[in-house]
Design brief:
This protein has 6 helices and 12 strands. With 279 residues, the protein is of the alpha+beta class.
């Protein structure tokens, strides 16, 4: 009888542990960054943001304003994920795991810090990430901001005073383009980046809704190579996109094309891209 009681108690404890380590509803891992082994998601949210200040320096309080000492403004779809990590691991082990993943992605590190070099953990938790669970011991914290292709991210790992270990990811992906968002860009700026070289639907819908509007399709490339080669590649990219629009029924006389190679007059992180400009 006593053995059976102990077995039942053990099963109840095991059941509780499994339930306690279940991800929050509706959450998922980012495709490019599989989670640290045996960790589980305790907080998950998705937001469309007009601008995100990607930290490229430590947290500081300057004239009563708490913010990163330096930052890079980016806009897009923000996904926030907080993981709890088994207490048998420390924040440095978790951080090194993700740094290995970023290396495999050939990510560009924008800023990296550890311990008190990062500033106050309280400021990262409450003022930057707005996740109270990330308020830990300053000496245990690690942070990195990086870019991998279209993905931009901020990663923070820390151990709290109760020895619980957390890792948090802010992931910013380019906004999903639609005919409506494209129209807003063109109306306000006269130009818009085309996020996907194969997705003509937003521009096709815009041109169909504005049958007299003419546009310029431009392309650039900053890949390694000779100038003549890059000019030809960017021209071919612009022409290929334009041909997709023509094949879909847009009059060719409404579209001009240009390939500028590496000679893009504005700053942009991506090594290549397409844009549409009103004529």
């Amino acid at each position: 009888m006593r053995i059976r009681t102990f077995l039942q108690l053990g099963l109840m404890l095991l059941s509780f542990t499994v339930q306690a380590e279940t991800d929050v509803a509706g959450s998922s891992d980012p495709r490019q960054l599989p989670r640290f082994p045996l960790s589980w998601i305790v907080s998950y949210s998705e937001h469309n943001i007009p601008e995100y200040a990607l930290a490229t320096g430590p947290m500081r309080k300057i004239e009563d304003v708490i913010a990163p000492e330096q930052s890079k403004g980016v806009k897009g779809d923000l996904t926030r994920i907080t993981y709890r990590v088994p207490s048998t691991h420390n924040p440095e082990q978790v951080f090194n795991y993700y740094m290995g993943l970023l290396k495999n992605l050939k990510a560009e590190v924008l800023f990296q810090c550890s311990s008190r070099q990062c500033g106050s953990s309280s400021q990262w938790a409450n003022n930057y990430f707005d996740v109270a669970e990330l308020y830990g011991l300053d000496r245990t914290q690690f942070f990195v901001s990086a870019m991998a292709g279209n993905l931009k991210l901020a990663l923070y790992s820390v151990q709290r005073g109760n020895r619980r270990v957390y890792v948090h990811l802010d992931l910013i992906q380019p906004l999903k383009q639609s005919a409506e968002t494209l129209a807003v860009d063109l109306r306000q700026q006269g130009v818009s980046w085309l996020n996907d070289a194969d997705a003509i639907e937003p521009l096709f819908e815009y041109l169909t809704s504005n049958p007299t509007q003419k546009v310029l399709i431009g392309s650039y490339s900053r890949a390694p190579g000779a100038l003549d080669t890059l000019l030809q590649q960017s021209t071919e990219t612009a022409e290929a996109f334009t041909q997709l629009l023509i094949d879909a029924g847009i009059d060719a006389s409404r579209i001009e094309t240009v390939g500028v190679g590496p000679a893009l007059p504005v700053e942009r992180d991506l090594p290549s891209g397409l844009w549409v400009q009103l004529r």
